[in-house]
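Whiteboard transcription, Tuesday session. T.W. wrote the C-alpha cells on the left side:
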C-alpha cells in the first residue's frame, strides 16, 4: 500500500529513518501494526557479532528471528530476517510469477555477490558466491581514477557507481590488456574489500588518472564486462534448470547488466524490481514476514506507492498559477523550456518515472548540458527518455513495455539528440495510460505538436537529496536552479 523511503522529501540520499520520518509514517497508519519487520544489518563493518536484527548474511532458518515486544503498551510481534533475505523476498514477492514457481535469485550489491534458488515450497537455497562486494568494487574503480576522492579503508561513495556506468559507454570493449588485467583481476578477486584502501593502489597507472581519461574509460568498460562475465559463467555452470531469474541489490540498477541477463538466454525470464537496491529492502523483509505469518509471499503493487505530494502552500509572489492544461505545458516544452513535474505519489526506488521528474524536449544536445547543469552533475551523465509505449519501436530498438527504466536500448531516431548517449544507446522508460495517465496525456499532447511522443526525463531532486515532495521545495528549487516552470497538484506554475 505504501513504501516510505527516508531519503524522499529532500532528505539526504541514503538517509536512515529519523524521528521526524518515523512520526510522519506512523501518521499514515490507522492502527498500531501487528508485526514490526526489521531487515537485518550490522552496526559497524569490522567487528563480528554486532548485528542489528538477524544480521546481513545467510538464508537459513537461523537467519530469521521472531519474538514479541512492547510497543506503546501493546504486545506486537517483531520479525527480522537477514539483509540477504530482504533482497531475495523483495524480488520474489514483487515478481509477476505465481507463488510456488521456482526461481533463481541473484543478489549483487555492496557486500553480496551470490546466487540462490527459491524452490516450490518457498525454501531458499544458497547456490554459491561468485565474488564478494561486486558493487563496492565497481564503485571503488571510479574513486581510484578520481583525484578528488580519498577513500579510507573499506569505504565507498554511493554516488560513484552511477557515474562509472555512464563512463563505461565511452570505453572501447575488448580483451583487457596486461596493464588493465593488473587492476581488474586483483580487485575482482579481492577476498573481503573491507581492508582495501585507495592508497593501496597508489602505484597503479590509473591512480588519480582522471575519470574522463580514455585509458580509464576503456578500463571501466572492460572491468564492467569482466565483472558480468564472472557472474554469467557461474550461472551458465550452475543455474541450468531454466527458471526465471530474479535480480536484486544495487547492481540490479545497472541497465547494461540487466540487458545482458535478458539477452543471455540462460533464463526463461528476468525480473528486476524498480527498487532493486536497498530502497526495496524494507519491502522485502515485510514480504518475508508476511510469508512467515500468513504463507503468502506475493504483493500487488505499482511503482507509484511512495509518499503523497505535500502542498504546503508557500508564498510565491513571482509565480503565475493556472489550472493544468496539458496542451499548454506541451507547447511550453516544445519551446525548449524545462518543466519540473510533481504529481501524485512518488516512485518506489531511486528512478524518477514520471511523478517526480524534470522534463524537457528531447531534440538538442544543448538540453542535455542544460539539464546536467540544473542538476549540478557531471557533463558526461546521460539523460534518459520517457516515451509513449505505443511508439517505442519507432524511436528505439525495443518492443513492448519497459516501465521502470532498467534496460538499455539502441536509439533508432537520430532526432532524439538529447537522450542519445555516446555509444548510441539510451535507457528508456515507456508509459501507458493505465500506468500514468497524466504523463501519458502530456506525452500525447507533445506528440500532437512535434510528431514525437518522447521527452527528456531526469529525477527532480536537490543534488545529493531524495525527490522533492512539497511545494515549498519545488518552488525554491525551480527559482534557484533556472527551471522555467513547475506542475503540481493539477496546477501549472510559471515564473513571471
Ligand atoms: Fe543491499
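and on the right, the sequence the group agreed on:
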Amino acid at each position: 500500500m505504501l513504501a516510505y523511503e527516508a531519503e524522499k522529501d529532500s532528505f539526504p540520499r541514503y538517509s536512515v529513518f529519523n524521528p521526524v520520518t518515523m512520526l510522519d509514517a506512523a501518521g499514515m497508519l490507522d492502527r498500531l501494526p501487528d508485526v514490526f519487520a526489521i531487515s537485518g544489518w550490522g552496526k559497524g563493518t569490522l567487528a563480528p557479532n554486532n548485528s542489528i536484527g538477524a544480521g546481513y548474511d545467510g538464508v537459513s532458518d537461523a537467519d530469521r528471528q521472531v519474538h514479541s515486544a512492547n510497543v506503546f503498551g501493546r504486545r506486537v510481534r517483531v520479525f527480522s530476517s537477514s539483509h540477504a533475505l530482504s533482497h531475495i523476498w523483495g524480488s520474489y514477492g514483487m515478481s509477476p510469477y505465481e507463488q510456488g514457481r521456482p526461481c533463481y535469485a541473484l543478489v549483487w550489491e555492496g557486500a553480496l555477490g551470490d546466487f540462490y534458488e527459491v524452490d516450490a515450497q518457498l525454501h531458499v537455497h544458497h547456490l554459491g558466491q561468485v565474488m564478494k562486494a561486486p558493487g563496492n568494487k565497481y564503485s571503488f574503480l571510479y574513486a581510484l581514477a578520481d583525484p578528488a576522492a580519498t577513500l579510507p579503508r573499506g569505504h565507498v561513495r554511493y554516488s560513484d557507481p552511477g557515474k562509472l556506468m555512464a563512463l563505461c559507454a565511452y570505453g572501447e570493449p575488448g580483451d583487457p590488456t596486461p596493464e588493465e588485467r593488473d587492476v581488474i583481476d586483483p580487485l575482482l578477486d579481492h577476498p573481503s574489500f573491507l581492508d582495501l584502501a585507495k592508497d593501496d593502489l597508489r602505484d597503479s597507472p590509473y591512480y588519480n588518472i582522471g575519470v574522463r581519461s580514455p585509458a580509464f574509460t576503456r578500463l571501466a568498460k572492460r572491468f564492467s564486462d569482466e565483472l558480468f562475465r564472472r557472474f554469467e559463467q557461474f550461472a551458465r555452470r550452475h543455474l541450468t534448470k531454466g527458471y526465471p531469474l530474479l535480480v536484486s541489490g544495487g547492481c540490479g540498477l545497472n541497465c547494461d547488466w540487466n540487458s545482458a541477463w535478458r539477452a543471455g538466454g540462460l533464463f526463461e525470464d528476468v525480473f528486476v524490481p524498480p527498487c532493486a537496491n536497498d530502497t526495496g529492502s524494507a519491502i522485502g523483509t515485510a514480504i518475508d514476514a508476511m510469508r512467515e505469518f500468513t504463507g503468502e509471499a506475493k504483493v500487488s503493487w505499482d511503482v507509484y506507492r511512495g509518499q503523497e505530494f505535500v502542498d504546503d502552500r508557500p508564498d510565491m509572489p513571482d509565480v503565475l498559477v493556472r489550472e493544468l492544461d496539458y496542451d499548454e505545458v506541451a507547447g511550453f516544452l516544445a519551446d525548449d523550456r524545462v518543466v519540473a513535474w510533481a504529481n501524485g505519489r512518488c516512485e518506489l526506488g531511486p528512478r524518477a518515472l514520471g511523478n517526480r521528474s524534470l522534463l524537457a524536449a528531447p531534440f538538442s544536445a544543448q538540453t542535455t548540458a542544460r539539464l546536467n547543469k540544473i542538476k549540478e552533475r557531471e557533463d558526461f551523465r546521460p539523460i534518459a527518455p520517457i516515451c509513449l509505449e505505443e511508439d517505442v519501436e519507432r524511436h528505439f530498438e525495443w518492443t513492448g513495455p519497459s516501465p521502470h527504466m532498467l534496460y538499455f536500448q539502441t536509439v533508432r531516431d537520430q532526432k532524439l539528440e538529447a537522450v542519445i548517449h555516446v555509444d548510441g544507446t539510451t535507457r528508456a522508460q515507456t508509459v501507458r495510460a493505465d500506468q500514468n495517465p497524466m504523463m501519458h496525456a502530456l506525452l500525447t499532447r507533445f506528440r500532437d505538436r512535434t510528431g514525437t511522443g518522447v521527452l527528456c526525463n531526469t529525477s527532480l531532486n536537490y543534488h545529493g537529496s531524495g525527490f522533492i515532495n512539497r511545494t515549498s521545495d519545488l518552488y525554491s528549487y525551480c527559482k534557484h536552479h533556472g527551471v522555467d516552470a513547475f506542475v503540481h497538484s493539477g496546477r501549472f506554475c510559471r515564473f513571471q
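Someone added at the bottom: The two ends are 39 Å apart (CA to CA).
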